[in-house]
Known about the structure:
Structural class: alpha/beta
Order of helices and strands: EEEHEHEHEHEEEHEEEEEHH
CATH superfamily: Class I glutamine amidotransferase (GATase) domain
Radius of gyration: 16 Å
Largest sheet: 8 strands, mixed
CATH topology: Rossmann fold
Mean pLDDT: 93
Strand order of the largest sheet: 4-1-5-6-14-13-12-9
CATH architecture: 3-Layer(aba) Sandwich
Number of helices: 7
Helix content: 25-40%
Distance between the termini: 13 Å
Amino acid sequence: MNPPLIAIPGRRSDEAKGHRTPVVSGGRLYADAVQRAGGLPVVIPPTDDVDLIRATVERCDGMVLLGGGDVSPSQYGREINARLFGVDEFIDDFEIAAVQHAVSLDMPVLAICRGHQILNVALGGTLIQHLENYEVHRDTMHDVQLTQGSLVAEAMGTTHPMTHSFHHQAIETVAPSLTVVGHYSDGTVEAVQHATATWVIGVQWHPEDTAEEDPANQGLFNALIQRAARR
């Protein structure tokens, strides 16, 4: 059986070892976790051609949305905060178009960190632009409380996973079609799932960082591939 094709909306980079020109990248740790689970990662080059985005997504069986820089507040009707970094509205538009189409196709989606935020914004939610206690979430390990029976808890095999956190933003207003299924002790939204889609989830932490050693975090990728293989 052919491995499920997992779309990874890519990023543009001016620097990459061994390349003379700018590159499109998809993040090795994400790709490694997808491959360990039995999937084949397919990096989609960024474009503003919505028809091309949709056609490319339709050739895949699932999607992983990556972590990265901050989502432009213009995407959810807010003014920019001076503490933002890495804002790229071109990439915002690209990823929003990609995930909106994936959801419309009922495609399995695993949205990670920034991707979790993009998913929320793409479906009509808003973000906290800067957490006042961001140090708790900046390159730290902490546990998360998951809802029993949620897609995230089922995939991870636990309701109290240890997670690697690296962010300074979080979901503020939850998109109407998303349900919160995970929190940190300070109230930060850590996990969501789509209310009607078969398997669309977002996590605020970085499961790819610890997936090789931690079966619970690898479980998210395993569940994604299992769902993708059924399409």
